[in-house]
Amino acid sequence: MRTETARTPKEYNDDKMAHIYELFEKGNEGKSWNMGYYIIDTTGEHRVFFTLYKFKNSNSAYVNPYTFIKNVTSDFEKLEDIAQKINSQPIPVIVSGCDNYAAKVCEFRNRKNSPNPFVKFGKYAGKTIEEIWAIDKNYVVWFANNFTPKGESNAILSNQANEFKKLFFTELTEKNRATDTSNYLGKIKERLNVDAKVTSIKVNADYSVINLITKDGDNIFVYDKEYGLAVGDDVNIIGTATKHVEKLGKKFTYLNRIYITNEKPIVADTSNYLGEINGSINVDAKVTSIEVNGENKWINLVTKDGDNIFVYDEDYALSVGDDVNIIGTAKKHLQKLGKKFTFLIQINLNKL
Q: Following DSSP, what letter does each residue of 104-117 receive, concatenated?
């Protein structure tokens, strides 16, 4: 009788095994672990088979979550082809680092009566919350945010995860306080005009929370419903300082009544305000831009001396580039995108 020695992982070097692990890990990218996963394990008395199992998430500590599917091959070289086929499925696959499936079952049976419950799904199945915390704190925070407990043992798991989550944010806050060099911006109710970069966006049902940082490292956050911003955008933001708050050990200034643009303000503005408030203005100017706002139009103009004006217009059919004579009353002096503007009311416009 002719016999062959089965090719098992023991007969191949670490580089070849690492290649197989890498194939499956790449195939798992973007897949959800919530519905369970497949395991390829070496089985048999002499570890001659590569066997496929399904691990199904279970909320019961008394249900074995491992289900035998089939022996897929006894040939190590075929694992690469098998990886390509299995990776096309929506469920993740792992190549087990344990000796065999029987060892997993034994561990499960020993652990199910343990007073310290363990996680029964995902990439850390079989480990306690404390064990996971020691190697992957972010996963524990994810678990605390997403796990819905059913039964006494799972309630213990959830409570443990939430306690470690509190510790995670306590440690993060203390670390940030020790290194934070930021300052609060302005005084409460002060109108601010700053350049900043968008650092993060949290989308809620009706609005988004936008975090930004200035070039000096000062932090801002705003609630946004209108601006289609993305992380990394450089913007100019005008708003009113409403709160000075600490978030995870960092100082933040909350702005409301905001106006945001991706345009850069003029760095060295040489314009001047025109006249005194409530004083009469009579000046020639050129229309630089027109913004339609419902029934009104905002008309921006600039004088030959470079001084800026804006008015609300309902009656005048103006176009960008028109030269006009404008008579009006100075109602406000304010800044828009770093430029000085005089707002005129009770206006009379005539094209030149």
A: HHHHHHHHTT-SS-
Distance in angstroms (rounded) separating the CA atoms of residues 95 and 9: 11
Q: At 218, phi and psi to the nearest 5?
A: -90, 140
Residue 286 scores a pLDDT above 80: yes
Q: How far apart are CA 252 and CA 17, in angstroms?
A: 49
Start-to-end CA span in the chain (Å): 110
Tokens of 314: 């309902």
Give the Å distances, CA to CA, from 207 to 15, 195, 215, 219, 247.
Answer: 50, 22, 26, 19, 19
CB neighbours of residue 346 within 10 Å: 10
Q: Give the β-pairing of 250-261 and 234-247.
A: antiparallel
Following DSSP, what letter does each residue of 7-58 receive, concatenated? P-GGGS-HHHHHHHHHHHHHHTTT---TT-EEEEEEETTTT-EEEEEEE---
DSSP symbol at 76: G
Distance CA 218, CA 181 (A): 8
Strand 339-351 and strand 308-313: the pairing is parallel
Burial class (CB in 10 A: 0-12, 13-18, 19+), 287: buried
Model confidence pLDDT, tens digit, residues 79-125? 778 777 777 778 787 776 444 444 444 454 445 445 567 777 677 77
Alpha helices in the chain (DSSP H): 14-27, 79-86, 101-111, 129-135, 137-146, 152-179
Q: Is the pTM of this model over 0.70?
A: no
Strand order of the β-sheet with 93-95 is 66-73, 49-55, 37-43, 93-95
Helices 79-86 and 14-27: crossing angle, nearest 10°? 10
Q: Tens digits of per-residue pLDDT, 312-326?
A: 776 667 788 889 888
Q: Give the number of other Cβ atoms within 10 Å of residue 324's Cβ.
A: 17
For residue 303, the model assigns a pLDDT of: 92
Whole-angstrom distance, CA of residue 127 vs CA of residue 130: 8
